[in-house]
TrEMBL record:
Species name: Microlunatus aurantiacus
Leader sequence residues: none
Chain intervals for the UniProt region annotation (Disordered): 1-31, 231-256
Highest taxon of source: Bacteria
Protein's name according to its UniProt entry: DUF4191 domain-containing protein
Protein biosynthesis as UniProt keyword: no
Compositional bias segments (type: Basic and acidic residues): 1-21
Keywords: Membrane, Transmembrane, Transmembrane helix
TM region(s), chain numbering: 53-73, 79-98
């Protein structure tokens, strides 16, 4: 009986492993992918919006390899130089892939409701973001991020409607954050606004005003504020798969 139970347990465990393997293989979430699959999917998605991608990725790779090989022949070690050139060329190709993927992602979602979520997903882990904390019927939306640069509210939509919406959210957050300054940003291409493709860099460049323990404390208070909000009808914004692919490419480049 014991042997039979053991065999059944092993069979169940094997079946569970096979099911999990099949799920990961079919998944489009970069967290379920290996390094090579992450890179391949990032390349495929980016190539849809960037037809010059092969030139930008493979061009530097070949150039670095050729330069290294020429130097190798000059010093009498072409094999070692060739191997080094291939490695450095791959690193250069990955750097260009990440940059082009980022650019293509912004191009893909520019103008769509909820596109600020793409930029917020590219912030470092020190930043904690919550997309669409408030929204109007016209799909003007307020997004929030919290990190070393402070508490930031990002308005996305028609500036006239956003003014009152942002002002109301600033008052709510200032009451909860106990004196912490709330920075507001309106996303757009007009003067005084921040475009989608510059949003993440703009936020990262904000002067450091909060330590990690302060971020944790304020985050807990914000949860209380969010808990009393009415259910928000989510705008039909993007699901930033491509931005996660950017992070997947970075992971693959530096190793997990």
């Amino acid at each position: 009986m014991a042997d039979q139970a053991g065999k059944e347990a092993k069979a169940q465990l094997k079946a569970a492993k096979q099911a999990e393997k099949a799920r990961r293989k079919a998944s489009t979430d970069p967290a379920d992918m290996g390094r090579m699959r992450q890179i391949k999917r990032a390349y495929s998605l980016t190539h849809e919006y960037d037809k010059q991608l092969p030139l930008w990725v493979f061009g530097p790779w070949v150039a670095v390899f050729v330069i290294a090989l020429v130097i190798g022949f000059a010093v009498g070690h072409p094999i070692y130089a060739g191997i080094l050139g291939l490695t450095l060329g791959m690193l250069a190709a990955m750097i260009f892939l990440v940059r082009r993927t980022k650019k293509a992602t912004y191009k893909r979602y520019a103008g769509q409701a909820g596109s600020a979520e793409v930029a917020l997903s590219m912030l470092p882990k020190a930043w904690v973001s919550k997309p669409v904390i408030a929204v109007t019927r016209q799909q003007d939306a307020i997004h929030r991020t919290l990190g070393p640069g402070g508490l930031v509210l990002i308005g996305e939509g028609e500036p006239g409607r956003l003014k009152a919406l942002l002002a109301g959210e600033v008052r709510k957050h200032e009451r909860v954050a106990y004196g912490v300054k709330v920075t507001t940003i309106v996303m757009g291409s007009k003067e005084g606004q921040v475009p989608l493709d510059k949003l993440a860099d703009h936020i990262k460049k904000l002067p450091k005003t909060l330590e990690s323990n302060q971020v944790t404390d304020i985050r807990q208070r914000l949860r209380a504020l969010d808990a009393v909000r009415p259910q928000i009808p989510m705008p039909k914004g993007p699901m930033p798969t491509s931005s996660r692919q950017v992070k997947g490419s970075r992971q693959a480049m530096r190793g997990r």
